[in-house]
Amino acid sequence: MRVAVSHSLTRAEVRRRLDAKQDSLASFVPGGMADIETRWQSEDRMLMIIRAMGQQLTGHVDIEDNQVVFDIELPPALSFVEPMIKGSLEEKGRKLLA
């Protein structure tokens, strides 16, 4: 699942905001029952391990010049929640970058 959120910030400012809000990334997953571990793979890529609904998911956040791209691998068993997760990522991602 891929969700792009546009922004008009510098890459450094996006990184700063993601760093400052790492603890709140779990709220991006509907239901609030997620645990998320993050680490920076590079200046522009944050890796994520997400534990939710008895599943472990992997993903990353890529910082680009005009957008931030959330990319999360959803197993088939969770495909039914994809629209809810996409909507939450779009909404909360826009607030994070506003």
UniProtKB/TrEMBL annotation:
Top-level taxon of origin: Bacteria
UniProt cross-references to Pfam families, sorted A to Z: PHA_gran_rgn
Record protein name field: Polyhydroxyalkanoic acid system family protein
Origin organism lineage: Bacteria, Pseudomonadati, Pseudomonadota, Alphaproteobacteria, Sphingomonadales
Alphabetical list of InterPro entries matching this protein: PHA_gran_rgn (IPR013433)
